[in-house]
Every structure is written in structure tokens, then in C-alpha cells.
Specification:
Structural class: alpha+beta
Helix content: 10-25%
Strand content: 35-45%
Distance between the termini: 79 Å
Number of helices: 1
Largest sheet: 5 strands, antiparallel
Number of strands: 9
Length: 150
């Protein structure tokens, strides 16, 4: 009878060890598969005429199953001090570039122009006293993504 009890304990320990090993391997695979696969594919900067502000663009390509996207973000940041940039525009697009340009009309007015189709997901019209205007020269006027195959 002692032999049977020892055998049951060993079987239970072995089963628990196998379950923990499988869980550890699956956890590692999950973490590796879910890593953010992003690449900065473009960036630009434009300083205000008085030199107090800078507008920064960053185009990022995200990859992965079900998460692939290309986004362009425009930030506004003072040139002095250790402040983080503030997001003022966010575009979703199908192409690596939307031919975006930034032009400071005055020290307090930034004009952003894009010439290729994109969806505007976020738009601030004023930030820290800086007016932000947006010009769409792409010809795309609808909601959602344009059909680029035409």
C-alpha cells in the first residue's frame, strides 16, 4: 500500500511540473508575439518665427497580426524648458507619407497641410495660445479610409 501512495504522489508532482513548464513556455511565446512592432518611417520639425515653439511630426508604421497601421502624429513643444510635447493632430493613413507640411503663419499660428488621403482622428484647434489650422489638399472628403486602388 505504501508503494501505491508513493506512486500517486510522484504522478501528481510530475503532472504539476509538466503543467508549470507548459505554462511557462506559453507565457514566453505570448510575450514575444505581443511585442510592439513599430518603426518610425519619417519625422520633421518646424520652429516658430520667434523660436519659442517647435512643431514635430512623426510617422510610425505599426505591424503585427490585426494591429498593422500607419499613423502620423503632430506635436507642439516649447523650445525652452523640459516639457513633453503635446499631441495636436493624429492621422491614420494607408501610405507611408501623406505629404504633410507645417508652416508658421505667425508666432501664434501654425498651419498644417496634407496632400495625400488620410483620416484625421484627432485635431486640436488651439494649444497654449497657438492656433492650429488644417488644410486638406488630398481631395479626400469622406469618413474612413479612401479606396486607394482607384
Amino acid at each position: 500500500m505504501a508503494f501505491f501512495e508513493t506512486s500517486q504522489r510522484d504522478t501528481r508532482r510530475y503532472s504539476i511540473t509538466i503543467c508549470l513548464a507548459v505554462f511557462a513556455v506559453l507565457s514566453c511565446l505570448f510575450l514575444v508575439a505581443c511585442q510592439s512592432d513599430s518603426t518610425v518611417v519619417g519625422s520633421n520639425e518646424a520652429r516658430s518665427p520667434d523660436g519659442n515653439w517647435k512643431a514635430i511630426t512623426r510617422t510610425i508604421s505599426y505591424g503585427g497580426p490585426g494591429t498593422a497601421a500607419i499613423q502620423t502624429v503632430v506635436y507642439l513643444q516649447p523650445t525652452t524648458g523640459a516639457t513633453s510635447p503635446v499631441e495636436i493632430l493624429l492621422f491614420n493613413q494607408n501610405a507611408p507619407s501623406i505629404d504633410l507640411s507645417m508652416n508658421w503663419l505667425t508666432p501664434a499660428h501654425l498651419e498644417v497641410t496634407y496632400r495625400k488621403p488620410a483620416e484625421v482622428d484627432f485635431q486640436a484647434i488651439k494649444c497654449s495660445g497657438i492656433e492650429i489650422s488644417l488644410k486638406n489638399l488630398s481631395g479626400f472628403k469622406g469618413n474612413g479610409f479612401p479606396n486607394l486602388s482607384q
